[in-house]
Specification:
Structural class: alpha+beta
Largest sheet: 7 strands, mixed
Distance between the termini: 64 Å
Shape: flat
Number of strands: 18
Number of helices: 21
Helix content: 40-55%
Strand order of the largest sheet: 2-3-4-1-7-8-9
Strand content: 15-25%
Length: about 600
């Protein structure tokens, strides 16, 4: 008998259907030589301190650090979980082969391996590894089962992460709660939670202590186009008014006209973080809701595996792209232009790169036609993913960037604009509109790219004429409070403010947490009362601020340091660094942390 263990009953039913097992039993489905069961997510967890030593149940500063000689796991105390585990254990005892069909990721591997360890599995284990739950993908996965040995480094990385979180969370929380007691309050500390909170607190402090400065800028309008002075503004309004009076009757002269054509590449495909960022900007959806929604679309076979941190596809997917596009029948108005030419689809290195793909590729649609009855959130997220995917195969947009330099007496002015010459991929993501906006005013953060396009009149070098000068008062603004979108980006880049996509990709290796856990971390900060929402912004509460002020050691609140730990965990996953070395280093750091905090005056 072959036993297949999925993570959820819904996935188990799909696998059973494909394998020809159609006899439901209590906790599993059997037939055709298979028994398909499921784990209900996390059935096991690391043991609590008192499971190792009874004395560790009490909170005592003298007992710290709590470092078990060997970490163990236990069943979660839940009757449904215990009942399902007994089903799995009995099936595994009789199995000649177990196929691990858990979610194809680090967390999914950890969930399944803990259950198999607890069930004392003695028979061979193989791994089903799929990026979508379509029939084709599942059949292909069963035809190419991986060995359990191939998954060893992935499991070790997940285990090291869990133990590392235990070491810092248990010891840090007890240490600060007892060393700096506050009546009725536990000071919760976490490897990812605390540096994330520190980012929010620090941003609040930057805003609180920000000192604005005001300058007065010369502007003038010529041929319905706004020109701005190229020099820095004036410190006082009186200075600007004196210049206005001086130049008002002098003509504006066009000194240089520069037109430059440029290509604009399609935006990258979505990884989980960029999808969460986009849905928060577009629809105000929280990171947690976005994750739940894209997970639902994955389980409905409409999109690929969501908990990914790459925006690339592997090259072996290229031949399958036309079939996926043909399946997107609701988007024929866009896919027809790609499929009707008879030419091969564009194959960009910005989309296909085996070096940038490890276990999973970017999030894309599967080509399965969506059923009716999707929720509003599911429809929105599916639309984002699908349109971004289609746009990736459209031609680059061609733009004309224009810069006009002008002079009024000795004062220089500039106007800039750009024109869409060929829409390319923009026709998919930003349907064409009539654009006549020639305003040169800066636009608000978060506006769509097309709202910044400005079509300027034709200017000729040497032309001159009357103009209408004015003064623009500009006051510097403090940094903006984090939104969920900008906080996710900050977590991804260990607190560095990075707009460039290529640099951001490189910094992902040192981000705080994993894409699949960041939403949960933010929700945890809300639940513990450390942060609050004010409209779309995230603010630290007084409790959160006090916690960060209490924690002085950078080990616990440095985004950069936490990012370096994250990089080592990724090295473990790739088999480039030993999990034992990582944990030994962490144990030493926790020991030093306890000793240091004990000495605080």
């Amino acid at each position: 008998m072959i036993v297949c263990i999925a993570e959820k009953p819904s996935v188990a039913r799909e696998i059973a259907r494909i394998l020809g097992a159609n006899h439901p039993q209590a906790g599993f489905i059997e037939g055709n030589g298979y028994c398909i069961t499921w784990t209900l997510g996390h059935l096991c967890t690391l043991k609590e301190p008192n499971d190792y030593q009874t004395l560790w149940k009490r909170w005592s500063l003298g007992d710290l650090p709590l470092i078990p000689s060997r970490f163990g796991i236990k069943l979660i105390d839940n009757e449904d979980y215990k009942r399902q585990f007994q089903v799995i254990r009995q099936l595994v005892e009789k199995a000649e082969l177990v196929i691990n069909c858990g979610d194809a990721g680090q967390e999914g591997e950890l969930i399944q391996q803990w259950v198999l360890t607890k069930a004392l599995c003695k028979c061979p284990i193989q791994r089903l590894w799929v990026s979508s739950l379509t029939d084709e993908a599942i059949k292909e996965g069963f035809a190419k089962l991986r060995s359990n040995e191939e998954m060893k480094s992935l499991y070790e990385a997940g285990l090291a992460r869990a133990i590392g979180d235990w070491l810092l969370g248990i010891n840090g929380t007890r240490l600060y709660t007892m060393r700096f007691p506050q009546p009725g309050r536990i000071l919760s500390v976490g490897r990812v939670q605390t540096p994330t909170l520190a980012l929010i607190v620090e941003r609040g402090r930057q805003i609180e202590h920000f000192v604005p400065t005001t300058t007065f800028e010369l502007q003038t309008r010529y041929r319905e186009t706004l020109f701005r002075q190229t020099d820095e503004g004036f410190a006082t309004k009186k200075q600007a008014e004196e210049i206005i009076e001086q130049i008002a009757s002098s003509p504006l002269s066009i000194t240089k006209v520069t037109k430059q054509q440029a290509k604009e590449l399609p935006p990258r495909l979505f990884d989980l973080t960029s999808l969460q960022v986009e849905s928060n900007k577009r629809f105000g959806m929280s990171a947690e809701v976005t994750l739940q929604t894209i997970q639902s679309l994955y389980e409905k076979k409409l999109t690929t595996y969501p908990r990914v941190d790459t925006t690339y596809l592997s090259e072996d997917l290229y031949p399958k792209i036309p079939t996926i596009l043909k399946g997107l029948r609701a988007y024929e108005r866009f896919t027809a232009a790609l499929l009707s030419t008879g030419k091969p689809l564009k194959k960009s290195k910005k989309v296909f790169d085996n070096k940038k793909v490890t276990d999973h590729h970017a999030i894309i649609p599967t080509g399965v036609n969506p059923p009716s009855g999707l929720s509003l959130n599911e429809t929105r997220i599916y639309d984002l993913v699908t349109l971004r995917f289609i746009a990736a195969f459209y031609p680059d947009a061609k733009m004309a960037n224009t810069t006009i330099l002008a002079k009024i007496e000795e004062y220089e002015f500039k106007a800039t604009g750009r024109e869409v010459l060929e829409a390319g991929w923009r026709a998919v993501l930003f349907p064409p509109k009539e654009k006549t906006d020639t305003s040169n005013e800066p636009k608000e953060e978060g506006e769509e790219p097309e709202s910044r396009d400005r079509l300027l009149p034709d200017f000729v070098e040497g032309e001159c004429g009357a103009h209408a000068p004015s003064i623009k008062e500009r006051t510097t603004e403090p940094p903006k409070y984090y939104t969920e979108a900008t906080l996710l980006r900050a977590m991804e880049t260990a607190g560095k403010n990075v707009e460039d996509e290529t640099l951001r990709e490189a910094l992902k290796q040192n981000g705080i947490g994993r894409p699949s856990t960041r939403a949960a971390i933010i929700e945890t900060l809300f639940k513990r009362g450390y942060i609050r929402r004010e409209k779309s912004s995230l603010r630290a509460t007084e409790t959160g601020i006090q916690l960060i002020d209490t924690i002085q050691d950078p080990l616990l609140k440095s985004a950069e340091l936490t990012g370096r730990w994250e990089y080592k965990l990724r090295q473990i996953e790739r088999g480039e660094y030993a999990a034992a070395d990582f944990l030994q280093e962490l144990k030493q750091q926790v020991t030093e942390l306890v000793q240091s905090v004990r000495r605080y005056s």
